[in-house]
């Protein structure tokens, strides 16, 4: 039986496959953490798990027969409980239905030890899930802000391009207007001397007429 089959076996008793998977994960995680920390996990009627230290020693390679030094290490060890041993040995029969009849834990024994570790493990998992959800929410908000900023930048760039294009279009018109003004100024300069000459011509006969009138007056006076 593997882990998936174990979950399926207890799913009906725990109200669903997800609840069973969470329960199995929590129990195994709590047991492993307790054993790694040096605690002894004991389940009445089933057995106990504990950490055993092995000192440095010499061993032989089974393939070559060479003597090899093995470093100091620690290994997990499981000791089956008496009820478990009796069931495996056949001195006790397994019930056809229901749970295996093992000794129940004494009152008050579930307030600490492995049970407390299980509760801590479940609480840690819930806290980790909340933190992950909060991080994902912050990441989504940050992404939304970056997207909005990028859109604004694109809009500003488009507006700047339009302004530049309009400026380019108006530049030729301004050049044409300047050229027209220059032409008008040149024409005005050309007409100015002609106007002066015409004025001079009309003024000269008037002066001659005035001189003739004066001569006539002088002649009349002499005759008298």
Report on the architecture of this protein.
The protein starts with a helix and ends with a helix. With 224 residues, it is of the alpha+beta class. A three-stranded antiparallel beta sheet has the order 1-2-5. It has a two-stranded antiparallel sheet with strand order 3-4. The protein has helices spanning 3-14, 17-36, 82-89, 114-223, and strands at 41-43, 47-54, 57-60, 67-70, 73-80. Mean pLDDT is 74; it is low at 111-115. α1 packs across α2.
Q: Per the principal axes of the C-alpha atoms, what is the gross shape?
A: elongated
Strand line-up of the largest beta sheet: 1-2-5
**Roughly what percent helix?**
55-70%
Strand content: 5-15%
Low-confidence stretches: 111-115
Short description:
It is built from four helices and five strands, in the order H-H-E-E-E-E-E-H-H. The chain has helices at 3-14, 17-36, 82-89, 114-223, and strands spanning 41-43, 47-54, 57-60, 67-70, 73-80.
